[in-house]
Design goal:
Elements lengths: L7 E3 L2 E2 L9 H20 L16 H8 L1 E6 L7 E2 L5 E2 L1 H12 L4 E6 L5 H6 L5 E7 L2 H4 L3 E2 L4 E3 L1 E6 L9 H7 L2 E5 L4 H8 L3 E5 L2 H9 L5 E5 H11 L4 E3 L6 E2 L2 E2 L2 E7 L4 H17 L1 H6 L14 H5 L2
Parallel strand pairs: 3-6, 3-7, 11-12, 11-13
Antiparallel strand pairs: 1-2, 1-5, 4-5, 7-17, 8-17, 9-17, 10-13, 10-14, 15-16
Length: 313
C-alpha cells in the first residue's frame, strides 16, 4: 500500500496534496488535537441550525447555503476523518464532503470532533449537520438517522504481535485461542467478535491505542477496518506488531461486507438526496476513487451497494 498522503481539508476546500510520512508522533499529535478540537467545538457557542420534521424533506440545505458553512461530525479515526497534527481537518470523508458541498452551494466545511459512539447523538442533538466519519450502515443505525449511499465497502483486519504467535486470522481463531481482543468504542467489530464467541473484548479510543496495547502485550489482537489497520502499521513502522490479511466477518453463518457512508438527521431527506446525486456523479466519473486513493483506498473498495440494501433488516 502506498504511504498515506496528507490531504489537508481547510474551511475553503482541499489544500494542495503534500506527501508526508505520518509517523507515530504525528498519530499521537493528531489524537491530542482531536481532544482539543472536541473541547473547543463543545464550548464555542456555535449557532445551531434547528431542524423540524415537517414532512416535506426538511430545509437544512437551504439554511446551509444561506450560512455558507456546514458542520461535519468527525470521530478521529484514520483514514476516515480526523484532526491532523496541524489542527486541521483531514480524512477521506471530509475530502468527499468538501467536494460535494461546494457543488451544493456550501463553500465552507467546519469540523466538530467527538467520540465515535457520540456521533449519532451529536447529530440528532444539532451539534453538527452531518456525520462525516465513514460510518458503517446497518439496520440499527438506520432507525436513528438516514444515510447517503455508501462511498466504500470494507473488510476487517487484525493488529497482532510480530509473527502472529497465536495464529489469529479470523474472529473464530480469537475465540478458540481464548485471546484478549480490543477494538474501538461503538465499532461493528464488537458484534462480530461476540458472534464468534470471543469472551475478552476491550474498547480503546483508536487504532493507535490498539497498536500500543498489542505491542505492550496488554491485548493479543486489535480488530478494525482493513484500511485503518494497514495504515497505522505502515505509518508507525512498528517493529513489534503487524497486520493480518483481510478478515471477513461471519454473521448467522454468512460472510459480511460492510459499507460506510454519510449520515443525516431523519427529516432532512432533501439534503440527503441532493448529496446522493452529487456522490453518484463522482462514482460514475471515477473521481470518487481519486479523492479517496490518497487515504489508502483502492478500486476493490469502491461499491455500488445502496443504503437501502444495508438498512434492510
Amino acid at each position: 500500500m502506498a504511504p498515506l498522503q496528507r490531504n489537508t481539508i481547510r474551511s475553503t476546500g482541499i489544500a494542495e496534496n503534500t506527501r508526508t510520512g505520518l509517523r507515530r508522533r504525528s498519530l499521537l499529535a493528531g489524537a491530542a488535537a482531536l481532544g482539543v478540537a472536541g473541547a473547543v467545538g463543545a464550548t464555542s457557542g456555535c449557532s445551531r441550525v434547528a431542524t423540524a420534521d415537517t414532512g416535506d424533506g426538511g430545509t437544512l440545505l437551504d439554511q446551509l447555503r444561506a450560512k455558507g458553512t456546514v458542520r461535519l461530525g468527525l470521530a478521529g479515526e484514520q483514514p476516515y476523518s480526523y484532526i491532523g497534527k496541524d489542527g486541521e481537518m483531514t480524512g477521506s470523508a471530509p475530502a468527499i464532503a468538501t467536494r460535494i458541498f461546494k457543488e451544493l452551494g456550501v463553500d465552507n466545511v467546519q469540523p466538530f470532533a467527538t467520540e465515535f459512539g457520540s456521533l449519532i447523538t451529536g447529530l440528532n442533538s444539532l451539534q453538527f449537520d452531518v456525520v462525516a466519519a465513514g460510518m458503517y450502515i446497518n439496520p440499527e443505525r438506520c432507525e436513528q438517522v438516514i444515510f447517503a449511499d455508501p462511498e466504500y465497502q470494507m473488510l476487517d483486519a487484525f493488529i497482532v504481535r510480530k509473527g502472529n504467535p497465536k495464529n489469529l486470522h479470523t474472529y473464530k481463531d480469537i475465540a478458540d485461542a481464548g485471546a484478549k481482543m480490543a477494538t474501538g468504542v461503538g465499532y461493528a467489530e464488537i458484534g462480530y467478535a461476540e458472534e464468534a464467541g470471543v469472551k475478552s473484548i476491550t474498547t480503546l479510543p483508536d487504532q493507535l491505542a490498539g497498536l500500543l496495547a498489542v505491542e505492550q502485550g496488554r491485548v493479543d489482537v486489535f480488530a478494525g477496518t482493513a484500511v485503518t489497520v494497514f495504515n497505522v502499521i505502515e505509518e508507525t513502522e512498528s517493529t513489534k506488531a503487524e497486520a493480518t490479511k483481510e478478515v471477513t466477518p461471519i454473521v448467522d453463518g454468512k460472510p459480511v461486507i460492510d459499507v460506510g457512508g454519510f449520515a443525516f438527521r431523519s427529516p432532512e431527506t432533501n439534503l440527503r438526496d441532493s448529496f446522493n446525486r452529487e456522490l453518484h456523479k463522482l462514482k460514475q466519473s471515477g473521481e470518487l476513487l481519486e479523492i479517496m486513493r490518497p487515504f489508502g483506498f483502492t478500486k476493490d473498495q469502491m461499491t455500488t451497494i445502496t443504503a437501502k440494501e444495508k438498512c434492510a433488516p
